Amino acid sequence: MASKSSIKYYVVDAFSESPFHGNPAAVCILQEEKDEGWLKSVAREFNLSATCYLTKIDDTTTSLPKYRLRWFAPAVELNICGHGTIAAAYVLFQMGMVKHNEVEFQIKSGKVLLAERIVDVNKITSNKVDEGAQHLSVRLVFPLIPIIECDSLEMELASTFTSCGDLPINVVKMSYEDELIVEYSSGKIVADLCPSINEIQKWRGRGVVITGAAPKDSGFDFFSRFFCPNLGMIEDPVCGSIHCGVAPYWSKKLSRKQLKAFMASPRGGELQLQVDQEKQQVLIQGKATIVMEGFLFH
What we know:
Diaminopimelate Epimerase, Chain A, domain 1; single chain; 7 helices
């Protein structure tokens, strides 16, 4: 039973409409700001790839609902998190906490991120609210991250990530967070890859993205996986934020602005992407489902 000292939380599987797929995130609804030690302790307790904290902001300068949003991995606070933002927005939309079709999130850096409710009206067969919710997805407007070349030492390090005999065909990095993008010759190699986590842990950035062109009959443009032991987890099942750099990379390679991506972790997850070079934005869209709800007591 809830009490005055309880905090409502939801566990959401992002980038999947089926439970136990996609990427799980805990979303905690706060009435007031909490100290960082408490936030970190709760994140370690959940031990998910992201624990998110939402606090409503009364802001008369905007007509949109606005929330303060912070994300924590088990080991560190995150500067940006796609699946956590999908999960947070989905809870607000699905649970009726916001009536508007858009919501703004103010993050720790002071920047504001926009999330939009997208409903596939062609699939709704009744006027029931829950029927429509089954076809709800969330679209994020995230900043585009430019790609820069790697030096010879970084290229050499990337070649040690796997001992399976398949060597990368290209290695670049994102200009923000120093995330490495290692391209292999096929998505099948990406899906089957067993990388050396000890070698990946030597990389100074947040993590390493392994990617490759999707099989022609898969319905996707490319496959990726994200290994990030420095964040306190071996593999992030479905990472939205890496696509701020990976989507522009594939957009240029395939000469396409709209892309469909699959993260080939054991849980798997699907993302719809749109690259806008003029606005320096990447639109990241995905489905989600709530698999658990409860209360934190403190």
